[in-house]
Amino acid sequence: MELTENLQQLESTLQNLLEAPNLEWILVGGKGGVGKTTISCSIAMKFAEVRESVLLISTDPAHNLSDTFDQHIGKEPTQINGVPNLFAMEIDPITQTKQIEQKSEKIFEKAKKDESLGFFQNLLNDLSTSVPGVDEMTSFSQLMKSVSEMKYSVIIFDTAPTGHTIRFLSLSETMDQPLTQILNLNPDTFDTVSKIANSLLGKDDIDDDESNQEKLNKMSKAMHTVSSRFKDKEKTTFVHVCIPEFLSIYETERMVQELFRFGIHSQNIVVNQLIFPEKSAKLLEILKIDDDELITNENNNNNNNDNNMNIDNQIIDKNDTICIMENCPLCNSRALMQQNYLSDVEVLYQDFHVVKVPLNPFEIRGIRRIKNFSKLLFEKY
């Protein structure tokens, strides 16, 4: 493929997200362990500087938002300490699944014996035995219920690993045909089916007076609303996160192809945990610890040693860190391997903003470190 001048000029930052005035949903995803949560939190933190209200949602069953922000975050929007317009929440699919099982056990058993349900019996069997995918379905149903009530200028989704996210994004498409068929069922079967739909929608009372048709139409409408929002490139985009290794890049390509198939916009790839020995001094400057964390003469007995820094309760000399990174055979070997994969990414995704983020010398946790880390995403490094 021949590079055009326009493609060559794509900026290697996420600044394009901030410059999209109509952007409302940002999904962040990739293979497990590549730093999705850190990237998601950093994006949310940056948007909080320019938008009126920001919500960060974790749809990953293994939540990390609380650990990253160093505060408790629950299933309802929780204000982030020190950032009045930034909120976060963690959808708990496991708890939601257990609630569905407890409420619907008797209904499932009755429905599975009802031959008039026909094709729907297979779905009931799947749900009642909690096959893989039920957690994503319950997350999706809870998301649909919450989306209609959310009034935030932008919402960032910290998604589950690639395979789970693909199932999550395809649920509206997967469920569309069954719901259409259910709506055309004999009215006599609606009593059973509507109770199940009611449970999936998260209702506390499965025996309310809402009509069967209204229940199922509500689920169908919610799915179509979310699906339409996903496919609106002005309002929704997907940010890929990977590391410069084969499996991670393979998963990224898989996700890129699936998003294209679903019609979901994506034009940003964050390549995380890169080793740049020659740029270690610049990295430490960007990620500098605040003045109150500098090790002074009074508490370390090292006269005139302004290079010492307290990183995670360890005294580290900035010059020593630079020296180690530049002369470490392991670092240099890893850096060479990473450059080969990074070159592949740059060739394969010529029409993407490829953001190169270095491996950090310490854990990114807490507001100050997240803010500093976000500079690596939105400013040229």
TrEMBL record:
InterPro entries: ArsA/GET3_ATPase-like (IPR025723), ATPase_ArsA/GET3 (IPR016300), P-loop_NTPase (IPR027417). Residues 24-282, 308-378 form the ArsA/GET3 Anion-transporting ATPase-like domain. GO terms for biological process: tail-anchored membrane protein insertion into ER membrane. Transmembrane segments: none annotated. It holds the Pfam family ArsA_ATPase. It comes from the Eukaryota. One of its GO terms (molecular function) is ATP binding. One of its GO terms (cellular component) is GET complex. Coiled coil: none annotated. Belongs to the arsA ATPase family. This is Atpase asna1. It comes from Anaeramoeba ignava (Anaerobic marine amoeba). The lineage of its organism: Eukaryota, Metamonada, Anaeramoebidae, Anaeramoeba.
